[in-house]
Amino acid sequence: MNLKRIRAIAKKEFKHLFRDIRMLLILLLFPVFLLGIFGYAVNFDVHHIKIVVYDEENSSISKEFINSLTKSTYFDLVGYINNDSQIREILDGKKAQSVVVIPKNFSKDFYSKQETKIQFLIDGVDGNTANIIQFYSTAATQSLNAKLTTEVLSRAGTKSFVPIDLRPIFWFNPDLKSTRFFIPGLIAMILIITAAVSVSLSLVREKERGTIEQINVSSIKSSELLIGKTLPYVLLALVNAAMILIAGYILFDVVVKGSYPLLFLSTLIFLIASTSIGILVSVVSDSQQVAFSIATMVTMLPSFILSGFVFPIESMPAIIQVITNITPAKFFINVLRAIVLRGVGVFAIWDQLLYLILYASILLGAAILIYSKKEAKS
Amino acid sequence: MNSIEVKNLTKKFGDFVSVDNISFNVKQAEIFGFLGANGAGKSTTIRMLCGILEPTFGDAVVGGHSVAKSPDSVKQNIGYMSQRFSLYNDMAVGENLEFFGGVYGLSNQKLNERKKWVLKIANLEGKENLLTGSLPGGIKQRLALGAAVIHQPDIVFLDEPTSGVDPISRRNFWELINELSSEGITVFVTTHYLEEAEFCNNIILIDAGRLIAEGNPKQLKTDYLKNSIYEIESDKVIEALELLEKQNFVVETSIFGNNIHISVEEKVNDLSRINKLCEEGGITIKRINKIVPTLEDVFIHLLGNEKIL
């Protein structure tokens, strides 16, 4: 291993990078842009659910219930209807996501201590949102229940008593903000794409232009070449990671709870795994277009769908859970959530880091094997 | 002293024999021409001699090191320039030279010294900040050669260095090759231009992976071509060619510009039959004379007409 040669390669690669300022700016700003999009637009927190009320009774209790719903930011009242044939029209026309039906003798039944019903008709097309609406409406109804029970009982001269007062407390992400949960996944996805794509392109470019031949006949070793070629992109990706964290802090109050050195070390290991994908891609592709398509495909989709970024791995079928191991993003997201959100130490994540190292070794081994086979044939 | 010694060098790709048991020697500081049609095995041979490709059988000692046993030592002592321009167009001239100097691990002092030398031979003194992509073809070629020998190797391999370069630049390039050779560097060169091959001290010709001729240009012309070559100038070139091809005493025919070259069996000395034949066919012969064969005549004879270099 000769440092002089590695430096020569890395220096040249930096020159390519800085010569193309537009590309450099895209590489640096794109992650922050993505963060903005994910942070603001792709938000799984459900607020401002549009509801339409069909109040057949129009009593003080029914009004109070509706008020209690619309007081929160969860529900927005967009209108009233006065016959049930309109319900279909409202839901079909997507004028509201839910219709609340309060029956005619709601308060009468209630005060005569008969069971009464409130109906929530929910648009179930978006299952996730529908679930959340159901959760909110149940909670709203329950709190009304508790309140009214107290009232009724006190009228009868009895003190109310609720046997179990359930108070769940969410640790690590107390207000259940999905942005906080997304940022680790986003960092992983952006880093894996930029690292794999830029490294594979920079290696294939040499092949395409024939300059690799000139490097091959020199006495440089493949390891020196690969380290020199990947080093600038790893540094660039580290800058990217820092920028996402800073933007995450400024825009969404995401603070790193754990140790920065550990975060840095883990990111470096993840980047080695990601660049090994790029190296493997560069070995099998002969043109920049092919390399770009393969590299984006093998990094983007798995790191989005299979990594646990958006969809929890635990709720996937067993076979898919096995397949999730094809993306190193899975392990890195575990690590990031642990360090950034929970603030744990290396003892809780060492196995994930080990997986990442194993992953990188397997891919680099495969790349060397395929490369030497191809060389012997050409 | 030999700077390259090739012994029974063979390369097989599966069942296909690309280089078939070739042996030859290259003396120090000579310009050695390596000729053959496309697909004859030239590039494969060069790749083996440069230590990039492992031979299936046999070996070659290049600059004192075995390509089979210590390819890395071979690489440190050779320079290589391919037919494809392999410098970085998006970098400045100086940056390219610094890069290749760095790849060979030159010290800063050595690098500066060699950079000056390359800039001089490429006629680029004081222009090291120019973008390499903006240079004209001939200058690029000289710069590429300079970059290939920036680490002062004893041997340099040039794989079709002048393909796609205009004739004047080609001539200048060969002057540079002569200069390198006079400084003691062995130049191993492949080319498709046979007039360039005439400049070589020694030549080998390979066909289908086999060595079929070797020697200096003069030897090749006398040793391999026993027949006499005549150059014929006539008013109807194609008709004359068709007519002469049919004659038994004519061994080979080929067109050179407006003239026809025919190779005739040695025992035939009577040229009047040719004149007579042509007159009967309505063709006027303006000139006919015996010529010293060119290398092209030799190779057409050796390879057959269907394989044009």
Please tell me about this protein's structure:
The complex is a heterodimer of chains A (378) and B (309). With 378 residues, chain A is mainly α. Chain A folds into 2 domains: 3-42 and 177-377, no CATH class; 49-155, abc type-2 transporter like domain (abc type-2 transporter like fold). Chain A is built from 14 helices and 4 strands. Chain A has helices at 3-19, 21-41, 60-71, 85-92, 106-111, 127-155, 178-209, 211-216, 222-252, 260-284, 288-306, 318-323, 329-342, 350-377, and strands spanning 49-55, 75-80, 98-102, 119-122. In chain A, helix 7 crosses helix 13 (329-342) and helix 10 packs parallel to helix 14. Chain A is elongated and about 95 Å long. The mean pLDDT of chain A is 86. Chain B has 309 residues and is an alpha/beta fold. Chain B has 2 domains: 2-216, 3-Layer(aba) Sandwich (Rossmann fold); 226-292, 2-Layer Sandwich (Alpha-Beta Plaits), CATH 3.30.70. Chain B has helices at 42-49, 71-76, 93-103, 108-121, 137-148, 167-182, 194-197, 217-223, 237-245, 272-280, 295-303, and strands at 2-13, 16-27, 31-36, 57-62, 65-66, 78-81, 155-159, 186-190, 202-207, 210-215, 228-234, 250-256, 259-264, 285-291. In chain B, the strands form 3 sheets. Chain B has a 6-stranded mixed β-sheet, with helices on both faces. In chain B, strands 2-1-4-5 form a 4-stranded antiparallel β-sheet. The longest helix of chain B is centred in the middle third of the chain and has 16 residues, at 167-182. Chain B is globular and about 75 Å long. Chain B starts with a strand and ends in a 6-residue tail after the last helix. The mean pLDDT of chain B is 88. Classes of the chains: A mainly alpha (378), B alpha/beta (309). At the A-B interface, helix 1, helix 8 and helix 14 of A face helix 2, strand 6 and helix 3 of B.
